[in-house]
Amino acid sequence: MREYYSITELTREFDISTRTLRFYEDEGLIQPVRRGRTRLFRPTDRHLIRQIMRGKRLGFSINEIREIIQIYKEPPGEVGQLKLMIKRIEEKRDDLRQKRRDLEETLAELDQAEESCVERLAELGVNT
Amino acid sequence: MREYYSITELTREFDISTRTLRFYEDEGLIQPVRRGRTRLFRPTDRHLIRQIMRGKRLGFSINEIREIIQIYKEPPGEVGQLKLMIKRIEEKRDDLRQKRRDLEETLAELDQAEESCVERLAELGVNT
DNA sequence: TGCGTAATTGACTTTTACGTAAGTGTCATG
DNA sequence: CATGACACTTACGTAAAAGTCAATTACGCA
Fold this sequence. Notes:
The structure is a homodimer.
Chain A: H1 7-14, H2 18-26, E1 33-35, E2 38-40, H3 43-57, H4 62-72, H5 79-123
The structure holds a DNA duplex.
């Protein structure tokens, strides 16, 4: 496991711009350390970026991603806080389950659409 | 099956604003007919709205949603077009499969996070 | 020690997806 | 016929999430 990554290394790996990474830092999603003014990204930052990209692909806003990320950070010590956190996890999970239903339905419709196309091709005497 | 729906009926059903529906019309995603200047939405528009909402929840942009919607519209008659369409369907499907992976990973991490919380509660002597 | 490359900050701009406000029209109902 | 509910258009506004550009600064090395 590498100790540090440069900003351009990560922009290449995740195919994003430096502006984006700095934006995420401004938003408090990642906290790379500094050597002078230069940002040094640790494996934990890298993993966070991975989670951010996943969240983005799933259509979560920065704020929602922030909420999800905070969930991963060590569970709190107080009972009330813990119960609250569990409630929030449930909510996110429901959210994701809805997305999963949406996803399956959309996939099914795409399958149907493709089948129509293939049939239509067959009618035209094209071997797929 | 109802013949027509009013704009406010649909805003209530889908919990969106009239502005949003008019915006989708401007964007060419739906084409309600008119009686005078008043929009009349047919079942097909209603179904399109359902698809749009699904797409939105999955984080697709209006343009991506437009692409998906166009896929559902009757397969074209020409062989080249049909093959192109099948290619596009494949692409969307890959897209959705990536989302599914993202989704499962995120769910798994949430599960883990919840487990930590529950354990922590148990340590504190709280019965869940 | 000069130079290229990588990095930084800050300001300004852009795109997407609507929100909001202003000014009207239409129609049923009390 | 006044009122309220619903509808319309046009125009401008806005928040989120970066993109872009300019002006510096720092480093590595030939």
